[in-house]
Amino acid sequence: MMSLNPIVKLLRRKELTKVLYQNVYQYTRDTSLINSFKNVGLHFSGSSTIPRHIRTVCSQRFYSVKPAAQKEDDSYRNEHNVTVIGDEIPSPYTEIDSSGFPDYIKNYLKKQQIIKPTVIQAQGWPIALSGQNFVGVAQTGTGKTLAFLLPAAVHIKETQGRKGRGPRVLVLAPTRELARQIEVVAKDLEKLLNIRCVCIYGGVSRNSQMADLQPGVDILIATPGRLNDFIVSKTVSLSRCTYVVLDEADRMLDMGFEPQIRQALEGVPLERQILMFSATWPKEVQHLAKDYLGDFVQVNVGSTELSANRNIEQLFHFCDDYNKLEKFKSIMHNISGEGFGKILVFANTKKFVDKLTLMLRRNGWPAVGIHGDKTQAQRDTIIQKFRSGSTNILVATDVAARGLDVDGVTHVINYDFPNTSEDYIHRIGRTGRQDNKGVSHTLLTSEDERQAKNIIAVLKEANQEVPQDLEDMARRYNSVKAYEQQEKYKQRQNSWNSNKRWNKFRAPRQNTKFRY
Ligand code: AMP
Questions:
Q1: pLDDT (mean) for 83-109
Q2: CB of 139 closer than 6 A to ligand 1?
Q3: How many alpha carbons lie under 13 Å from residue 277 in its C-beta half-sphere?
Q4: Is the CB of 117 under 6 A from ligand 1?
Q5: What are the DSSP E strand ranges found in 211-303?
């Protein structure tokens, strides 16, 4: 070993290690050889020619902050329906005072009047502080933002970053609304810890965002499209970034952002920690985790299947297209009679959002509308008005379906049923947050028959009564489906029979095998 030292020192030089790595792998394809180099303290820097399964190296970064020790006691996890998968999983921080956080974080939590961690925080914080890659499968509204932002703050404060102006922490979020929401929480930390946070997203001019990035940034919150633009134009470099968060990973993949996410992760050094949060755990998210996280600890809070919040009473109204608007008005009258905090109304098209908003205003309900055709400034103002309560009826397309965290939403109305039952769960989840009760009203017409089966499953899972009309809808759809299938089968049978008859009169096939 002693005699190896000068050679190892020589090989540690960056260029030499790169060449050696490529050659060793290219010619031998022997990963064990690479590992033996690592054993003598030789680590290889990333290169695009290095195969993916070797590139998912994760450094074990232990801060001066101590993660909780591993205890055998699983009572907290059992009580809160938490399952953990992985090795060396530290015990949850059940109390903030006894957590391993430094005083500046404890003070911050006190200032925010946060006295107890949520479940994902209790189990997520010690894992994130232990430096391990982490996957958290939990619904939105469970306190995920602080689950990743507080360890991010510790990461910045307790580790020495490389020189440069690029971010040390990157948070990727699917929508501008969610990115802005994370920014609000990050800005509180900015003042307290003297760090810089910048949020970049599409739909607004790039110039002001470029100017914001100019002096350097610690935490960059970004939507994948705009980040990609800035990476390509070399406005942002991720070479300093050692802590990456993928928030609502399932939604980002649903929205088709996989190439942009992968491109961003390619620019991040191999010595990094990745935290991925997702409401569900589908195959696409699993592949992404496998490709970029290598070894990771997974924490599931509740089921990994999306399920409706049990604090929400789900009500359904059955009508036809011609009397749908009248039905909607009568629901609004009933809610107004009972009294409400805030109402969020969902429609599937931008045009209908505008139409409903206008109708509500004309009938004395001061509503505002939001959809993808509004400018970012308009969207921000509208959300702000709704958040502050200066207007308490918001009509929206699915831009407001996920992640939007507004206090006091007592009712959600689905004027149209969304494309999938998953979207339905996200929409109604805007009410009943943080242990409050909520009510959802959903209008259904014969057009929605194909969804009936899925809605029944959602209701049953949430232990709610299934209306007879919904059962009837599902039955009708099943019998129509069965009839259509029968017809298709008959058609296929007929065409096969007619082909057979025709074949009888065709000249026998020539044997063309030896014609040439
Ligand atoms: P999030 O899932 O991050 O959008 O958080 C949902 C809401 O829960 C936000 O309004 C947070 O301020 C709030 N919150 C986060 N963590 C806690 C906590 N430990 N105790 C009470 N409220 C919290």
A1: 90
A2: no
A3: 26
A4: yes
A5: 219-222, 243-246, 273-278, 297-301
